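Milestone M4 deliverable, item 7.
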Amino acid sequence: MQFGAGALLAALVGPGAAAAGPGPNLDFVDPELRDAARMLLRTEGGRAWTDATLAGIRAHAPPPVAWRPDVPVEERRIPRGGTQSPLTLYVINARADARRPGILHTHGGGFILGSARGEVPYLQQIARDLDCVIVSVEYRLAPETTFAGSTDDNYRGLRWAHGNADLLGIDRSRLVVMGESAGGGHAALLALLARERGEIPLAAQVLVYPMLDDRTGSTRMPPPFMGAVGWNANGNRFGWRSFLGQRPGTRAVPAAAVPARHTDLAGLPPTFIGVGGIDLFVGEDVDYARRLIEAGIPTDLLVVPGAFHGFDRVATGTAVARRFNKAKYNFLRRAFGQAVEV
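Output delivered:
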């Protein structure tokens, strides 16, 4: 399964995003993003998120986007342990004769969709722009595996990147975890796990509209205009239930699976959190940033008014998306010890 950014986000539009009639009032959407919002709302006229429909949603994958010829990509397979099939990693822009910054990337898709392979062109652009190496993990999706399986996959990928830094041309002192949406949730879990195990120091974590709290849309309902475009509460409940292997929002949910349920955030690396002001995740992301700040973690929080989930990937040519990406890039440049762009 290979979802490009726009098609993946279209697949994530859930129930209530009706295509019939004049459509919803988009006054709460930034004017520059309204055409992209209409496109998302037209693409899926109502999505029923169930175990029975998931296979069909996955099968509706768009054609793969061609990889850039000027940024090298290597597909690597590493052992998972026991009789499990190997774990696939995509190594982007590696060069053994250099010592450059490195990113361990985890893709988005609500824990249930998406692929590392499908994100390669997006990551090639970042690797080229920032002159860095990126390792992206093809972690197992839910519900076929729960959080324990995918978190283990991602930590194996991080440990492999750190252990093979010399061969990849990565400076171990400039290794960052990064992800978008569910990938941002995975990146946050990786940073927590790396802190707890004490094996791999991280220079930063970059959490792009991260999926951090299973209670959003289950026991905590945001205002209706948050999540009206893109990923919504219905999809969020299904994604978390698949990831957890149990109903989200209850006291029985293990903190190990949910970044927002960790009570101690001290000792985490410097953090970037960027999210749209009408994203379903804006409340949980702002709260996580607040808690990081109160724990003494240098934290950049960017909330973009009128921006919905994944706006930067479906409206790339807009000024609002360019400003968002510039802020993300400049945070990475500072973490890498590079000059920022004015």
